[in-house]
Amino acid sequence: MNRNQKIFSQFGICIICISVIGILINNLTINLIRTGLGFNFSWIFKPASFALAEHVLPYSSSDSYAWALFIGWLNSLKVIISSLLLATCLGTLIGFARTGKNSLLGLFSAGYITIIRQTPLLLQLMFWYFVGFLGLKNNMFFHIKNIFKISNQGIEFLGLTLSSEFSALLFGLSIFTSAYIAEVIRGGILSVSRGQWEAFRSLGLSERKGLLKIIIPQALPAIIPGLTSQYLNLAKNSTLAIAVGYSDIYAINDTIINQTGRAIECFLILLTSFLLLNLLISNSMETINKIIINSRKYN
Amino acid sequence: MKQPIVIAKNLTKSYTKGLRALDNVSLTVNQGKVLVVMGPSGSGKSTLIRTFNGLETFDRGELNVLGIKIDSTHDERQIQRIRRRVGMVFQQFNLFPHLSILENITLAPINVQKRRQIDAEEYAMYLLNQMGIDSHANKYPSQLSGGEQQRVAIARALALKPELLLFDEPTSALDPERINEVLDAIRRLAEQGMTMVVVTHEVGFAKDVSDQVLFMDSGKVIEKSTPDIFFSNARHERSRKFLNQLDKHS
């Protein structure tokens, strides 16, 4: 392609993009005029007048929509952060088991990864909610002297109560993501050459010490980018909370759209909050990656 | 009193399809002696010396290294005991790229033998000095030439004060002009009376350093001779053919 053709084709692409955006704005304006709502955020300080089963901070139905959204955002954050931690621990364990010497553990983890990755997340969430928690009998399924209790009301542990909705979401997201994290960890470990394993073994180092001091430090640069994208996926997947009735930001947005008809404003809020959240996740991971690379004195 | 350091009896390792990496290999290495293992690639010589420190398993036979017995069940604890007393040097050096030269050498003394860092470092510096590379102590492996890296690997293997050293083609990955510095280091160890098993293709070096030469082909020991006999008047047709080929290439 010569220079003129390039300029021409780029100009063409620009025109197409601008036209598409123009059509969308036009449609939006026409629809806004038809509904007679206009585009504004003044409704956000009116009372929400709906109840929330779960709230980290005090909330009542007379509080504003803005406060309800904020509570939803906190609920999302709560489930994302706890799933992220649980998925990382679980994924790391499974990943190591998959690469380890023990063939029974290897087989188990391979099976785990296969089953979890070949079934839809929505199905898994439903399973944990309806079969895992609501399916439990007698309000009391399993308990150890009132310290740890699992029932159809959720999980109770030393006075900390997790609702069955939250627990199902936590289990579903963590287990689903852990299978992917396990594969990321496995890939990272396999990226370290066999010679490194043989070298530490020949020096009499135990498998545990060798992993800790030789293999993991060299595997980390290969693990972090994959881990970041799994974390971002987890954050986005958390919007499936609506399926089990957990009041995350997406579910609350949905309720507000039904009540007020402010779909555009609500989606803008939703988009912005997820954009900010995921930027936060990817930037933190990028920082961790930079620290690891800078602390490396070799190339 | 020369005690046997390694006694192998009928070591056999099969792959699927009946292919044998090791076929009834028996041998003895006495204290202070150097055994050189030669043979074409794929003859099982690397596999053989890797069984001595448990990096490779075998299906039948018995192995006695420094009085510690291992058989086809490969008891982890016994293997670990052997590894603490046997050093190994690899073809690809296998230094730890994220650790400095000094850390590469002190890793095992500190973590396996629980020695104090100061003592371990002092001994590491002594070893680096012996290898003529003490000025590189704080560098990283990637900053060193192949020959220097391999000498670090020898120092690392020596750090645990091993009673047996295994060399798996220590010069095969080196530039020709870097080979001698590594061979000289191994020669000096032989003069100091270190018991060694060396897999190599370097005929001149093998002649100088070995007390016995083991020639292998397709997993079998074809010939076990002193270097005088092996290099001037090998008993077997297969050995003579192999040596001729080596001559042509060098």
Characterize the structure shown.
The complex is a heterodimer of chains A (299) and B (250). Chain A is mostly helical and 299 residues long. Chain A has one domain: Orthogonal Bundle (MetI-like fold), CATH 1.10.3720.10. Helices cover 70% and strands 5% of the residues of chain A. In chain A, helix 2 packs antiparallel against helix 3 and helix 6 packs antiparallel against helix 7. Chain A starts with a helix and ends with a helix. With 250 residues, chain B is an alpha/beta fold. Helix content of chain B is 38%, strand content 24%. Chain B contains nine helices and ten strands. In chain B, the strands form two sheets. Chain B has a six-stranded mixed beta sheet with strand order 6-7-8-3-9-10, with helices on both faces. In chain B, helix 5 packs parallel to helix 6. Chain B starts with a strand and ends with a helix. The relative contact order of chain B is 0.17. The chains are: A mainly alpha (299), B alpha/beta (250). At the A-B interface, helix 6 and helix 7 of A face strand 6 and helix 3 of B.
The oligomeric status of these chains comes to heterodimer
CATH superfamily of the largest domain in chain B: P-loop containing nucleotide triphosphate hydrolases
Q: What pattern of helices and strands is seen along the backbone of chain B?
A: EEEHEEHEHHHEHEHEEHH
According to CATH, the fold-level topology of the largest domain in chain B is: Rossmann fold
Mass-distribution shape of chain A: flat
